[in-house]
Give the backbone structure.
Amino acid sequence: METKNKPTLYWSLFKFKDWNFYIGSTSKGLVFVGSQNKPFEELFEWAKKRFPGSPLVEDDEKLEPYVIEITQYLEGKRKTFTVPFEYVGTPFQLAVWNALCEIPYGRTTSYSDIANNIKKPAAVRAVGAAIGANPILMTVPCHRVIGKNGSLTGYRGGLEMKTQLLDLEKRGSSSNE
C-alpha cells in the first residue's frame, strides 16, 4: 500500500556470523544498511528524516535479494553488487556516493581524490560530510575512503567495522589475482 509520496520502507535484521545490522529498502531498491550491532533506532531515526511519514514494515522476503548479495560479499564471494539502490540525498551527496561506487574492490582512495573525481577539488570537507551521510554501508563502499596519510578516518559503522571490511577485501583481492 504505497501512497503517492509515502513509500513503504521494508526492513529486516541482517545476521551473518558475528555481523548484525538492520537493512531497509523501498520497492525501488536498497536504501539503508545499518552499522554493526546498532539498535533499530538507527534505522528508525534515519527513516524519520529521509522518509517522513512512511510506514516501516518488517519483511524478510522483500529483503532476501539484498541479504543474499551482502552475505556473498561478507563471505568474500562477491566483489560488486547487482541489486538496485534507491539513493535519497542531495545532488551533491548523490555525486559523491556514485563516485564511491567507482572505487575498485580491495582498493582505497582519499577524500581529496573523491573531491577531484566529482570536479569539486575544494570541497574536501563537504565530501567528507556526504560520505558520512551515506546510508548504504558496504554496498556503497565508503569504507574504501581513508585519510591522505593512510589513516582510517571516521566511519558511521565504527572503525572496527571499517577495518574488518578492508581486511576482508584485502584477502579477497589478493587471493584472486
Remarks:
- The longest strand covers residues 9-16.
- The first helix runs from residue 40 to 50.
- Residues 9-74 form one domain.
- The chain has a mean pLDDT of 93.
